[in-house]
Amino acid sequence: MADKDGLKVAKDYHVGEAFANQGDFQVKGANGLDWGMKHRLSKIFDPKTGKTVMFAFDHGYFMGSTAGLERLDLTVPKLMPYVDVLMCTRGALRTCIPASNRCGVALRTSSGSSMLDDDLSHEVVAVDIEDAIRLNVDCMAVQTFIGADGQLESLDNLSQVINAGMQYGIPTLGVVAVGKNMERTDKYFKLATRIVAEMGAQIVKTYNCEHFDEIVAACPVPIVVAGGKKLPEDEALTLAYDVIRQGAAGVDMGRNIFQSEHPVEMAQAVRKVVHEGFTDKEAYQFYQELIH
Ligand code: 5RP
User: From the CB of 33, is ligand 1 less than 6 Å away?
Assistant: First the structure.
C-alpha cells in the first residue's frame, strides 16, 4: 500500500474534456463490457440521451413504512410511465409491482441495519445472484460506507456482488452512503466514488456537493445523484439541473418525487431536465402548468 505521507492534492481533472474511452456506447466506462451487460445498461441509460431517471422507493429496507410509500401498490404503478428505472427491494417488486411494465430494475441487494440502530453502516449481501437473475433485474445496488465502521464489510459486499454480476452480465450500482461521520464534501465524495468505481461497480450513486463536475470527471463510470430529503419542488428541480449540467448521468430520486404533493407531475418535470435539456426554471414552469 502506498505511503500516506506527503500526498499531493489531486487537481488536474480536465473538466469539460470528453471521456477518452467512450467508444460508440452511450454509457461511460462500459465500452469494453459484454453484450448482456451493455443490454442491461441500455435499459437503465436511454440510448438516445445516455441518461436516466431512476425512481428510488427502497427506503423500507431500513426505514420501514415511509411517508409517501405507505402503499407501494398504489403509488408506484402511477409513476412507472414517467421513470426509466425502479430502484427497490425484491419484496416490493414481487408483491406490489406488476411485471407488465418496461422499466429497468435496480434491485437493492444489501441490507442489515434499521432506523433503530445508532450505526447504520453494517450490512450484508441479502440477495443471491440466482434470485436477481430470476427477477431479470438490470443492476444490483449495494450500499458502501467508506470511512465508517462498516467500511470493510461493505466493500466485501460490493466485491461479492460485482463478482457475481460479472459472471452473469448484471451491472452493479455502488451507493456511496452518507452518515454521521461522513462529510458531504467534494473531498469525501472524490474518495468514495472513485473507490467504488475502481472496485468495479458499473454505476455509482452519490450526492451533490461543491465541485461536483470534478467528481464526475474523475469517476470512470456514470454517476447518478440521490435526491435526498424532501425539498420544495423548485429546489429539487434545481438540484437535478445542477448535477445534470455538471455531467451526472441521471438522478436516482425518491422522496423528492413520492413525497411531492403531485408525484406524477414532479416525475414528469424531472424527466424534462434529465432527458430534454430543460433548465430548472423551465421545468418548474412545466410542473406548475401540469398541476393547475
Ligand atoms: C439510500 C438510498 C436510497 O435509495 C435513497 O436514499 C433514496 O432516495 P432519496 O434520498 O432521494 O429519497 O440509496 O442510500
Answer: no
Q: What number does the ligand 1 atom closest to the CA of 87 have? A: 4
pLDDT, tens digit, for every residue of 208-245? 999 999 999 999 999 999 999 999 999 999 999 999 99
What average pLDDT does range 105-110 have in this prediction? 98
Q: What average pLDDT does range 156-179 have in this prediction?
A: 96
Cell of 37: 451487460
CA of 58 to the centre of ligand 1 (A): 7
Among 28, 38, 205, 272, the active-site one is 205
Asked if the structure places residue 17 within a domain, the reply is no
22 is a domain residue: no
Residue 219 to residue 169: CA distance in whole angstroms: 21
228 Cα nearest atom in ligand 1: 10
Can 205 be counted among the known catalytic residues? yes
Q: To test the ligand 1 pocket, which listed residue (175, 180, 193, 224) has its Cβ within 8 A of the most ligand atoms?
A: 175
Q: From CA 267, how far away is CA 275, in angstroms rounded?
A: 12
12 within domain boundaries: no
Pocket lining: 228 vs ligand 1, CB cutoff 6 Å: yes
Helices and strands of the chain, counted as H and E runs:
12, 10
Domain assignment of residue 222, given as a range: 35-60+67-111+118-291
What is the domain-level CATH number for residue 180?
3.20.20.70
271, part of any domain: yes
Question: How would DSSP label each residue in 276-288?
Answer: H---HHHHHHHHH
**What is the predicted pLDDT for the residue at 11?**
85
pLDDT value for 10: 78
Rounded distance from Cα 177 to ligand 1 centre (Å): 9
Q: Coil, strand, or helix at residue 124?
A: strand
DSSP bridge pairs for 52: 250
pTM reported for the whole predicted model? 0.97
**Domain tally for the chain?**
1
**78 CA to middle of ligand 1, Å?**
20
Give the model confidence (pLDDT) of 246-268 as tens digits: 999 999 999 999 999 999 999 99
